[in-house]
Amino acid sequence: MDRLRLPHLSLSSWSRLGLAAGLLVVFGSLVISLLETQALSASYEQADAARRVNDNNDTFRLGLFEQQAGINAYADDGRAISEQVYVDGQQLAASVLGQFQAAAQTEQLSREVLRVTVTAQAWQAWAEGIKKKVDDSDAPIDDPQAINQGATLFQTFLEADDSYAIASGQRIDSALDAARRERDRLFRLSISRSVLAGVLLVGLGFVLSRRVLVPIVQLAAAARGLATGNPMRIPAGKRHDEVGDLSRALTAWQASRNDRERLFDLSIDLFCVAGNGYFKVLNASWERTTGFTRAELMAKPTVDFYHPDDRQAVNVEIERLRQGTKSLEFRARFQCKDGSYRWLQWTVAPVVEEGLSYGVARDITNQVSAEEALRASGAHIRSILDNVADGIVTLDDSGRLQSVNPRVELLFGYASAELVGEPVTTLIAAPHQGDFLVHLESYLRPDKKQVRSGSHETLGRRKDGSTFPLEFIGSQMQAGQQRVFIGTLRDISEQKMERENLERRVLYDALTGLPNRSLFNDRLHERMAQATTDRTPWGLVMMDMDRFKEVND
């Protein structure tokens, strides 16, 4: 058998249901209390009226007894009419009794109060009628028998009236007691209903608290835990109302936040959220990089962690962030727990309306060290290049000059600014530019991946148009993803002259200036090799025209 389940109602439906039930209970209690109050008031009014009638009857009856002496004094005159008075009194009482019964039934009075009221009022009217008859009777009555009979009847009436009055008082007291008992019953009933209504309201409040308030309190505690970084268990979102929707949404948000925090902590970069001069959120990379715990980093103003020489620049950057300007590639030295400093490069985006800044920092200490070493090395190399005896140039892929050293300026008479961006052929004499470009192409071709070097002799041209023998030594090197083309330019005028002099001394006779035997043998072997290659006949004729062979030998 399936377990009885409550219908799936929304939180607003539960709230409206509880409000309606509470209003219904309160309204019902008010209506019941009003009806009971009206009934109790009517009972008291009826009993009070009966008591007043009874009090009046007692007063009147005492008056009758006081007048009895006077009535007896007039007995001689009154006995004759007493019988008629008695008869008239009975008729009057019957008439009054009928009238009061009809009125009582119309007003729907209680039976006990009706009986007491009608009886007392009828007796009063009867007694007043008798008194009126006696008072209005002025004629003397001479019939002694009638007088005696009337006196006897009147005396009987008085005695009967007294007992009837006592009975009426008893009935009135009984009615008052019944009214008191009714009052007490109604009071107890009202108290019972109020207690029952209170119990119902308490039970309804308990059900609503268990159904609505308890999950809301749990969700609020879980949300506060997430906000403070201390996640708590979120109630299961199996309900089909607003609380269930909120629970499922909070669970999904927590899962998404956990995923982000995993990525947040796994990153090698340093992520942070800062505001009011303090860190608010930090990832685990801060602890690995600085040695401080996240709590220690968030306990002090951020500027206190920077190198004293960098704090002014940091404050300027913070002020720019407050004005809504992003910070890109800002560098500063950040202190570690061991007292050392690490270079951090910042990228920060401010959110002015939230008063927060979201930043990413990267530890570039090694990069800065490499850059400093490179700058030092570059300065050293530049010093060498500036003082080397040869001219050195760098070229781009199209053969244009990118840089020249001072020796190039001295060799060709150009300033550095005049040469940068110009083709390298600017430094080559026009007749030799074609051969030079063919040689240079072997270095500049994109498919030439092998690093190589080589020399090429050509004719250089100075700014003034003069020329000189020039040796070009080209090479290329790979600097990361970029190829660098380097050319060494050397004035070989002296070397060429010395070589020519040496060749003349070796190949020509010092006395005659004519080619000697070495040059003869060189040309002979060259011609023989050519004839062998061409398969052509050749001959050799030797003539000693000046008979100088003997001297040479």
Report the total helices.
Answer: 15
Specify the overall morphology. Answer: rod-shaped
The fraction of residues in strands falls at 5-15%
**In terms of per-residue confidence, which ranges show pLDDT below 50 for 5 or more consecutive residues?**
1-6, 74-80, 139-143
Any overview of this molecule?
This protein is α+β, with helices and mostly antiparallel strands and about 550 residues long. It folds into 4 domains: about 10-205, Helix Hairpins; about 265-370, Beta-Lactamase (2-Layer Sandwich), CATH 3.30.450.20; about 390-500, Beta-Lactamase, CATH 3.30.450; about 510-550, no CATH class. Helix content is about 60%, strand content about 15%. The protein contains 15 helices and 10 strands. It has helices at about 10-75, 75-105, 110-135, 145-230, 240-265, 285-290, 295-300, 310-320, 365-385, 405-410, 415-420, 435-445, 495-505, 515-535, 550; strands spanning about 270-275, 280, 325-335, 340-350, 355-365, 390-395, 400-405, 455-460, 465-480, 480-490. The strands form 2 sheets. The protein has a 5-stranded antiparallel sheet, with helices on both faces. Strands 7-6-10-9-8 form a 5-stranded antiparallel sheet, sandwiched between helices. Helix 3 (about 110-135) runs antiparallel to helix 4 (about 145-230). The chain is rod-shaped, with a radius of gyration of 68 Å. It starts with 10 loop residues before the first helix and ends with a helix. The model is unreliable at about 1-5, about 75-80 and about 140-145 (pLDDT under 50).
